[in-house]
Amino acid sequence: MSPMLEVTGLQAAYGRARVLFGVDVTVEAGTLMCVMGRNGVGKTTLLNSIMGVLAPTAGKIVFDGEDVTRLPTYERVRRGMGYVPQGHETFPQLTVAENLRVTLEASRHKDRAAIDEALEVFPRLTEMLGRKAGFLSGGQQQQLAIARALVTRPRMLILDEPTEGIQPSIVAEIEAAIERLNKEKGLAVLLVEQYLELVLRLADGFVIIEGGAVRRAGTAEDLRDADVKRLLAV
Ligand SMILES: Nc1ncnc2c1ncn2[C@@H]1O[C@H](COP(=O)(O)OP(=O)(O)OP(=O)(O)O)[C@@H](O)[C@H]1O
């Protein structure tokens, strides 16, 4: 079986400032892989490069057997890569329902049932369909951001710190949703996450980025090693 996502030798830079020097990450179908590392090591840069938001300077990105390295972001989304960027981005002036609808209209399938499927994962949003996204709490906005990605019916979810700065009760709901999407619905997940306990519960594997490359990789169990913890310490 070929991997769902295979990233090899990925390099990225902002002008002359090089951030990634050759990152390799593989996500097998149906598994949850976590990307970790201290602040500013380039985790967001990695996800943006994988999605084509940022053009990598070298390397290859293969999604479900197809080389997508040169495809625009929307073509990657069409092929089943669902992206939830850092900072729970939504359209603040639109209602929850409108946020989901514009995503559906931009999707390839345009099947309205996808909105109900996404709401089923986050029932709390069902009570807020008429509310403007800008008036939701941070945690609810994060749920909406994930729900929007789900409306495209992705085969893989790419999530950038979905629990960052979010109240604990909603963090638990978001964790449960990610777990269900991965374990029950079989979605592959690539997750940037600093919350170690959550990673220990959900991840099949991890990579730690340092110095622009993968410094350590292993199973969730290996995250308990003292030297791994040292690589994560701020
Ligand atoms: N648009 C940009 N222009 C120039 N430099 C940038 C830009 N975005 C990020 N950087 C720099 O690239 C490096 C990696 O940033 P990135 O956001 O990818 O790290 P990160 O690991 O995701 O950090 P955090 O955990 O704080 O989100 C940092 O030194 C950052 O200052």
Automatic annotation (TrEMBL):
Entry GO MF terms: ATP binding; ATP hydrolysis activity; branched-chain amino acid transmembrane transporter activity
Coiled coil: none
CDD domains in alphabetical order: ABC_TM1139_LivF_branched (cd03224)
Pfam families the record matches: ABC_tran
Stretches assigned to the ABC transporter domain: 5-234
Residue stretches spanning the membrane: none
One BP annotation, GO: L-amino acid transport
InterPro entries attached to this UniProt entry: AAA+_ATPase, ABC_transporter-like_ATP-bd, ABC_transptr_urea_ATP-bd_UrtE, BCAA_Transport_ATP-bd_LivF, P-loop_NTPase
UniProtKB keywords: Amino-acid transport, ATP-binding, Nucleotide-binding, Transport
Family listed: Belongs to the ABC transporter superfamily.
Protein name per its UniProtKB record: Urea ABC transporter ATP-binding subunit UrtE
Annotated organism of origin: Actinomadura barringtoniae
Taxonomic lineage: Bacteria, Bacillati, Actinomycetota, Actinomycetes, Streptosporangiales
